[in-house]
Amino acid sequence: MNNRDILKRVLRYIDEYRMQVVMSLACALVSVVTTLYAPVLFGDAIDCIIGPGEVHFSDIKSIISKLFFVIALTVISQLAMNMINNRITYSVVKDIRIQAFNHLETLPLSYIDAAKHGDIVSRIVTDIDTLADGLLMGFSQLFTGLVTILGTLVFMLSIHVPIALVVVILTPLSLFVASYIARSTHRLFVRQAESRGELTSLVDEMIGEQKVVQAFSYEERALERFSEINDQLEEDSMRATFYSSLTNPSTRFVNGLVYTSVGIIGALAVMKGRLSVGKLTAFLSYANQYTKPFNEISNVITELQNAIACAGRVFELLDTPAEERDREEKKLTHVRGEVNISHVDFSYDKSKELIKELNLFVKPGMRVAIVGPTGSGKSTLINLLMRFYDVDAGSISVDGTEIRRADRISLRSSYGMVLQETWLKSGTIKENIAYGKKNATDNQIIEAAKKSHAHSFIKRLPQGYDTVISEDGGNLSQGQKQLLCITRVMLLSPPMLILDEATSSIDTMTENRIQRAFKKMMEGRTSFIVAHRLSTIRESDVILVMKDGHIIEQGNHEELLRNRGFYHELFYSQFAH
Questions:
Q1: Contact in structure between 310 and 130 (CB atoms under 8 Å)
Q2: How many Å apart are CA 274 and CA 47, to the nearest integer?
């Protein structure tokens, strides 16, 4: 998007608050008129001092009374204008941020996996804050500046046309200088925003994976990477700030020329009797008033370049296509758990083949185990079942409904999913367990915790189920965090289950208890179990052995061992001495 398109898009958000914009303009108009009327009063007061012993005090007293009223009106109108501008700015920013976050919820998982998470955070937080700064300066100074220029021009023309024309001819030079510098600095602000997003992404990554960083002694390399990006950000920021800072002194130089020209020409006019001293004083004040908005507008243009660069990054996120939705989505109800995978092809990188011609039919209530070496496609199959990714070819059906025609919420609600990686949010233990079932009662939560064997350790926590934990689980062990995730699924009691290394972080004794609980929960439910410890899947109805995206063997535990194939090698490799 070019600058004009971005600006038009921002103005569409502002258009929602057009009445407040009109009120702001009205306040700006009152403020400018009263500000410009003050020099006229000062000029009249000076003209009342004709000479020694010839001071018209009564007239001066009247003028001072008017000045007090004008100043009070100026202060009130500026205060009202600033309050309205703040409300418009932060309302617009709130709308954009809400839309950005809501859109983030609809983006396909492929985008989230490919994008740097810190950069996404930077767009929604930092870039929108920068946009707010630009909008606030635009509202506060751009409106007032434009009205001041027009108002001052009217007042100057009413006093002395030739001098006014000199001011009008010379002053726009500052705008040309400012616009030239602004065009040159836009790309620098874009680079600054990109470097800032990259730095945020690195910091987010290092904080989130601090244990891995320390375990592999990566601290020095992390500092080197941080220093490299930070140095680049410093360079980009310095260059952007330096070149944008040229605007102010350049425009002030032009403004100085204008003021000097007015002073010389005005003095000559006074000497010839064509202009009074009071009028010249007012004119000099107007020369400053007239050039000051050009200076402010040049600063606004510079700030807007930064804001537009950041707005472009936010709109780039908003324009990322959301997950495709079918026109006729069917809501899955009373799911039995029949799953049919037919001629499925899929790969993350379309240039590299991953899953090819995959076929599988699962009857309701079957327990399906999926085994195979790393990279064979086990977790990919789970992603396809949950429709985190759509298949490239073929189809996957649940109870006869092709999942691309099914409502995503109802599809995913039909599965209970426990992954190897745990996820907990900041809140109480109770809130974490009831994350997928907000209306769960305390008794239901406790019953689910007892089934998952999490109840005993929860009761030992300082506030039991009301203990507040951080988003990474606080001081809970990895096994305890996984027990909470298992409890969450126990509470939901869904018609289908996906267990992806669900007990990988749990001790053997607790695992045996949970396996018994899972066995009871899996009765009558279609279950997909991904496991590396093959001892945990012996009782599965069917075991799928995957390699390079294909099912190379299929059968129960005893059948696969008798075949003495790849599963036989996998199984006995775990018990080899």
A1: yes
A2: 14
Q: Do residues 302 and 414 both lie within one domain? A: no
Task: Return d(Cα 407, Cα 163) in angstroms, integer.
Answer: 73
**Cβ atoms of 36 and 289 closer than 8 Å:** yes
Q: How many CA atoms lie within 13 A of 38 on its CB side?
A: 16
Last residue of a domain, one of 289, 318, 347: 318
pTM of the model as a whole: 0.67
Residue 203 and residue 398: Cα distance in Å, rounded? 42
Residues 343 and 314 occupy one common structural domain: no
Which residues 6+ apart lie within 8 Å of 500 measured at CB?
378, 379, 382, 417, 418, 419, 420, 530
From CA 184, how far away is CA 250, in angstroms rounded? 15
- Domain count for the chain, please give it: 2
> What whole-number distance in Å separates Cα of residue 122 and Cα of residue 131?
12
> Which residues make beta-bridge pairs with 415?
496
CA distance 335 to 507: 34
Q: pLDDT, tens digit, for every residue of 298-326?
A: 667 777 777 888 888 889 888 888 877 76
CB atoms under 10 Å from CB of 152, counted, come to: 26
Distances (CA, A) of 316 to 46, 216, 304, 323: 58, 36, 18, 16
